[in-house]
Amino acid sequence: MKIAILSQKASLYSTRRLKEACEKRGHDVRVIDYLRCYMNIASHKPSIMYQGKLLEGFDAVIPRIGASQTFYGTAVVRQFEMMDVFTANESQAISRSRDKLRCLQLLAREGIGLPVSGFAHSTKDIEGLIGIVGGAPLVIKLLEGTQGIGVVLAETYQAAKSVIEAFRGLNANILVQEFIKEADGADLRCFVVGGKVVAAMKRQGGPGEFRSNLHRGGTATAIKLTPEERSTAVRAAKIMGLNVAGVDLLRSNHGPVVMEVNSSPGLEGIEEATQVDVASKIVMFLEKNATRPKGRDRVQH
Ligand code: ADP
Ligand code: MG
What we know:
Distance between the termini: 32 Å
Number of helices: 9
Bound molecules: adenosine-5'-diphosphate, magnesium ion
Number of strands: 16
Helix content: 25-40%
CATH architecture of the largest domain: 2-Layer Sandwich
Shape: globular
Strand order of the largest sheet: 14-13-12-15-16
CATH topology of the largest domain: D-amino Acid Aminotransferase, Chain A, domain 1
């Protein structure tokens, strides 16, 4: 197959590993910086230009869209879809997963376990908002944060109120969440490919840190999921319409709760912790599916 990896940098670990896996399995692979793709929209034959040439003949793309480039990145993925190229994750599903609120709304509709979460526009409603999640301590999150930046633990009602006011004063969209204390600074990253969990790790935040993100100094170890955790992860990816997803769970007193679903989950931490060749699992998924009639997004929100 001819495969394009859409990534800003060929030297990133995940990009390198995906490229290696494609080559190892005998595919013709190219890393394409999606920010340098340009498109002719007003033509009957959708096309993409890159470095002065038409991108042609691709069977599949693996989008690795950076969190800060969702708008342009998904437009490029969409253009590939218009050209009937199979994509590991569809553009709509990527956009959907980038908004934590939208993600929680969709998961809640299907009865997936979630931390109790609240959302409001006006600072006049702060009291009610804090009430929804049962008071302090609580977690406040920027809707489009990533790598743990923009996630704050407010220990008291007063702290919560002032942080919410400060964020809203900057016009930031936030959600407020019950603090799952019993998770003890750890979460589970379940790597889902094509409806199966192919690898799972437990991430533990550093001492005194409630955020387990590896970018915040967390450490990772391989873990065996319970059947309930496994099925929650698989269902969450499916609800989001993602074929490749990093589903993050917390172990709460009321069972596994989903915190978020990532559409470009990193490979480095999970491959190191589990020794699973996750990159090849993604390529094998493309081999199985890229030739089938195109999977069209069915979530429609
Ligand atoms: P990001 O997209 O920045 O990674 P997350 O929502 O995944 O944001 O939160 C970052 C980390 O903070 C999580 O991995 C988890 O360890 C911790 N965390 C987030 N929400 C909660 C919560 N409601 N209760 C306990 N810990 C939480
Ligand atoms: Mg996270």
